Every structure is written in C-alpha cells, then in structure tokens.
UniProtKB/TrEMBL annotation:
Species name: Adonisia turfae CCMR0082
Pfam families: HTH_3 (PF01381)
SMART domains cross-referenced by the UniProt entry: HTH_XRE
Protein name: Helix-turn-helix domain-containing protein
InterPro entries in the record: Cro/C1-type_HTH, Lambda_DNA-bd_dom_sf, TransReg_Diox_bact_type
Amino acid sequence: MSNHESLGSFLRDSRKKKSISMRALARDAEISVAYLSKIEQDAANPTINVLERIATALGVPVSDLAMFIRNREQDVDVATASNTPESLKRFIEKYSKDFPQLLDPDYHRALSGIRFRGKYPENDSEWLNIFLSILNVLEK
C-alpha cells in the first residue's frame, strides 16, 4: 500500500498529491482544521468514524488509513490513569452511561487538562457544567 511510517505522513502526502488544502479536507471530513493538523502531526489518534470520513473525502480506501491505527489498548484507561484526578474518575464513572463521549480518549484528555487556579473541579456538578459547556460548543 504505502511506505509511510505513520498515518499523519500518509494523510499529508495523499492530501498534497491531490492538491487538497487542509481547510477543504477538514470541511469535507466534517472535522476541524486544528484536529486534522493534529492527525497529520501524529498528535491525535482519530476514531474509525473520523478515519472513514477522511478516507471518503480523500477518495482512498479506509483500509489504507486503518492499517496505521495504533493499538487501542494503548489508549488511556479512564478508570486507572494515574494523572486523572479522583473527582474526574468519579464523574466519568457516574455519567458515562448517559454521556458515552466521556469514554473517548480525546474528551478524557481535554477534561484532565482543566484546572482553575491550579485546582481541578472538585465535584460532579462542576465537572458536569464544564462537560456540558464543551459539548455545547462542539455541537455548534
């Protein structure tokens, strides 16, 4: 298929060979330019759904992209990650059935990085307000 070392280099080269801008590919794949940039830099691990949309937008078989997917077992296990605050672990455990996005590694990383004056939110209500605000922004 390809002699590329990573998904990012394959995507970047495929996009450039077809003279497709990042903005156009991101639009056609229904993702942000920033997220596409992270994927091309191998700084993001996209879901199969995102890979399917990118493959369709690029006009390449999804199997060409799927062979680059990192082993999902390497993804963060929300319940045991040592850098996850206890209050976030409790929130995710309590609300993941209602909001399956909480199990997505990208949401987990985003929430794990939230601090105000050096402190994590302390209770479910604070986490829920933050999470719902993030969802609200992403749905627009």
